[in-house]
Amino acid sequence: MTPQSTTPPDTVHAAQMERRYRWQAATFDLTRRPLLLGRSGLAECVRGARAVLEVGCGTGQNLARLRAAAPEARIVGVECARSMARRARRRAVPRVEVMQADYGAAALPLGAFDRIVFSYSLSMIPHFADALRRASSDLVPGGSLVVLDFVAAPPPIAALLRLGGVELGGARWEWLAGHLAIQDSRERVAWGGLWRYRLVVAEKRGESARRMNGV
């Protein structure tokens, strides 16, 4: 019988991400700029928030946008790749905390955030349902998940995205629609049809229903 690995999935994923980005971190912002579209619209979704968490904050470029949109908020970024987290810390966005950890293992208090952001990170998390369940637990009552990510692409582009660790398909969007109340959903076409991306704002169904009933 082949022995089964006892390494936690979070540890495996963090190691994979570090191997992927160790030599890319220095040029990540420049090379990904044409790909990671829609982030300005995402930042607008955190206006008025008191506490914002970005899961998979990368080099921290997006944390600066979140800080500008929510100047009074506590902002935390979690990044599992050590090389990327190091660059995020060096960026030194005012009053932003950067944690180097896989989200599933991050030492964060439950129910502490009113916005949790996944900006082109959810498609790279293999155990995405676990991450989304954790995010739901980390939200305050009435808080929202804000997800921006790729939706679909023609086969040649999809193959290139997969080489970069991106998993396309509807499973992640279906999970959101099946477990949360979708408050907003906007889909856009990039670069004349090379791919599609989507911005979704969703909250716990119970919280949405209570507000509708005036509770």
Question: What features would you describe in this structure?
Answer:
It is a single chain. This protein is of the alpha/beta class and 215 residues long. The chain has a single domain, classed as Rossmann fold (3-Layer(aba) Sandwich). Helix content is 37%, strand content 27%. It has 9 helices and 7 strands; from the N terminus they run αααβαβαββαβααββα. It has a 7-stranded mixed β-sheet. α4 links the parallel β1 and β2 (74-79). The longest helix has 13 residues, at 9-21. It is globular and about 40 Å long.
In short:
The chain has 215 residues and is of the alpha/beta class. Helices cover 37% and strands 27% of the residues.
As a percent range, the share of helical residues equals: 25-40%
Kindly report the spatial arrangement of strands forming the biggest sheet.
Answer: 3-2-1-4-5-7-6
- The total count of helices amounts to 9
Give the C-alpha Rg.
17 Å
Shape descriptor: globular
* Annotated CATH topology: Rossmann fold
Structural class: alpha/beta
SSE arrangement, N to C: HHHEHEHEEHEHHEEH
Characteristics of this structure?
215 residues; 7 strands; globular; disordered N terminus
What's the SSE blueprint?
Elements: H1 9-21, H2 28-32, H3 39-44, E1 51-55, H4 61-69, E2 74-79, H5 82-91, E3 96-100, E4 113-119, H6 128-138, E5 139-152, H7 155-163, H8 171-179, E6 180-190, E7 195-204, H9 205-212
